[in-house]
Specification:
single chain, alpha+beta, eight-stranded antiparallel beta sheet, Putative beta-lactamase, AmpC-like
């Protein structure tokens, strides 16, 4: 009997719980409006809103400024350049741009905020002033452009992403915004994402901390800083972007590159860390889940998008207030509520369409010295190595055309697994990054570095 597929429509209790979370977020956060959305299995399955401005109720098609969520879009453009061979993540910026302040920082360090660059552009406050005040990249830096040695630690840098936008422009020969529209927004059908607001859009407000009154916030064109936080978007458009971040789209970026982007690019700081940063993607641990996405803020606006790959869910929250609402928590709670009310139904188990007898013969127990491991055969000739008992180094491996396998995760990520034939031509042992795994624990005839005592196993 086939397991039932998940319905595209959420259950009434789930929808009410989600609406309650949005209502609490808007009320306690004192935001003029708050819009939320849930994406499941790549589909927008719920949207909800509370409040509005100028007598208009906000909705999934209302534009909000998304602030630093823009950075993930910029990172996608950079990774496209990498995948096309136009740059390497290890390239120093000086190879492509003349920016003395950051010439030693690599592309990867800029993406991961480990370049050491100052957090903000030269004053006055760039988010509230015209970008024309900083017309060239040289105008982005103050008296102390570097606050840490490159590569030493994570230090969030808006100026770093301004430089990545300039890098895109240099290698594409077109303005950053035009490249973004052509290479990302149009293929993903994000017709309501833009550099400037388009009606219907929310107005940005500051809410007085001690009184229920509002003050309008300016919405400036940030110019050179645009790749760090310029974009406007909607809940519906961000749902399309969330689906892309989950599974990829070969017209933009493949799933393997997106998985690379959400690999931590800097060590965590503090004892009780619950977040990190990959390559243009924020990482968080919430309620036992690993989330990736980004949060954003600009004067008058807050935004958050979190994806849980394990749950196949994403939560989006947008508000038009400078501060107050815990927007990252709201978006994470939308994922949690949906997952708790409607746990993901696993797809049905199916046997492999075909199995190479030679690979099938490799499955089963192998030993690294006295430590037992199990080798399993997966789809597309992939292999999975896991410790018996659950404690130890586990990795999945991708089959390569030359007959080897490459580690995809864990300790052996990027390492090579080889099958070494014995004297009879049959598989003798596994070579995994120089480690030898044998069919028996330290059998005397096995090829084990350092040799095996000829008397073999014995009582003490």
């Amino acid at each position: 009997m086939t397991a039932p597929e998940e319905s595209a429509e959420l259950l009434p209790d789930t929808r009410r719980a989600l609406l309650h979370r949005i209502a609490v977020g808007q009320s306690e956060g004192r935001t003029p409006s708050l819009v939320g959305a849930v994406v499941r299995e790549g589909q927008l399955v719920w949207t909800g809103a509370r409040g509005g401005t100028d007598g208009q109720t906000s909705g999934a098609d209302t534009q909000y400024r998304i602030g630093s969520l823009t950075k993930t879009f910029t990172a996608v453009l950079v990774m496209r350049l990498r995948d096309e061979g136009l740059l390497d993540l290890g390239d120093p910026l000086a190879k492509h741009l003349e920016v003395p302040e950051a010439e030693d920082a690599t592309v990867a360090q800029l993406l991961a905020h480990t370049s050491g660059l100052a957090a903000e552009a030269r004053g006055p406050w760039w988010e509230r002033t015209p970008g024309a005040l900083r017309p060239d990249t040289a105008d982005l830096f103050g008296e102390r452009p570097l606050v840490h040695p490159a590569g030493r630690r994570h230090h969030y840098s808006n100026t770093g992403f301004a430089l990545l936008g300039a890098l895109v422009e240099r290698l594409r020969g077109a303005p950053w915004g035009d490249v973004l529209a052509r290479e990302v927004l149009e293929p993903l059908g994000m017709t309501r994402t833009s550099l400037a607001p388009r009606a219907p859009h929310a107005e940005g407000w500051a809410v007085h901390p001690w009184a229920d009154v509002l003050l309008p916030e300016p919405a400036e064109d940030t110019g050179r800083m645009a790749p760090a936080g310029q974009l406007w978007s909607t809940a519906a458009d961000l749902a399309r972007f969330a689906a892309f971040l989950l599974d990829g789209d070969e017209r933009v970026l493949g799933a393997a590159t997106l998985a690379e982007m959400r690999t931590p690019g800097a060590p965590p700081e503090g004892r009780d860390w619950d977040g990190g940063y990959g390559l243009g993607v924020q990482l968080a641990r919430r309620d036992g889940r690993f989330l990736h996405g980004h949060v954003g803020s600009m004067p008058g606006f807050l935004a958050a998008l979190w994806v849980s790959a394990d749950d196949r869910l994403a939560g989006i929250a947008l508000a038009n207030a400078t501060s107050g609402a815990s927007i990252a928590t709201v978006a994470a709670d939308l994922v949690r509520i949906t997952a708790e009310h409607e746990p993901r139904i696993p797809g049905p188990w199916r046997p492999l369409p075909e199995a190479d007898p030679a690979l099938l013969a490799l499955t089963g127990p192998w030993y690294w010295g006295p430590t037992p491991f199990l080798l399993r055969l997966r789809a597309d000739r992939g292999l999975e190595l896991s410790p018996v008992g659950g404690t130890g180094r586990a990795s999945r491996f991708r089959a390569e055309p030359d007959g080897t396998w490459t580690g995809l995760d864990g300790y052996y990520a990027g390492e090579t697994l080889c099958i070494v034939a014995g004297e009879d031509g049959a598989p003798g042992h596994l070579d995994l990054g120089t480690f030898v795994l044998t069919r028996e624990p330290y059998a005397p005839a096995d090829v084990v570095p350092g040799g095996v005592d000829p008397d073999g196993w014995r009582p003490r």
